Amino acid sequence: MQVTLLKSKIHRCAVTGASLHYEGSMTISSDLAEQVGLRPYERILVSNMGNGERFETYVIYGKPGTGTIELNGATAHLGKIGDRLTIMNFGFFTPEEADEHKPRVLVLNEHNHVVRYEGPEVIESNLEVARR
Averaged over 17-35, what is the pLDDT? Predict the structure, then answer.
């Protein structure tokens, strides 16, 4: 048996752009994605705190240190620049793994700078890049 638990979360990030004619996905500054363990093309669940929309898409890495959070393709209709989002990703764990699991969580401010990190091991140099 396996259980599904939160693996990664970027909380309160602000949308910095939207590209309706892009072929889909969400662009996330690679340093932010890496800090919570999100991989390129990994499936994510996104909730928009401003309008209540929830949608699934996948991660595309953006330029590190930029704070980029961009809605691409059809998802561009589900938010606007400045909207605050929660980006989540889930993993499958055995019950034994679940007992020890701690998700990686970033809380960001309105400029997509890291306010707080929760979870196991973070690479400090990446955290410093994200704070700029």
Answer: 93
3-state secondary structure of 103: coil
> Would you tell me how many other CB atoms lie within 10 Å of the CB of residue 30?
21
Q: What is the CA radius of gyration of the chain?
A: 14
- Catalogue the active-site residues: 25, 58
Domains of the chain in sequence order: 3-131 (2.40.40.20)
pLDDT digit string (tens) for 80-97? 999 999 999 999 999 999
| Token pair 């994200």: residue | 130
Per-residue pLDDT tens digits for 92-121? 999 999 999 999 999 999 999 999 999 997
- Give backbone dihedrals phi and psi of 54, rounded to 5 degrees, phi first: -130, 140
CA distance 128 to 64: 11
Q: How far apart are CA 24 and CA 40, in angstroms?
A: 13
Find out whether 67 and 32 touch, Cβ atoms under 8 Å. Answer: yes
Question: Between vectors from CA 82 to CA 76 and to CA 88, what angle results, nearest 5°?
Answer: 65
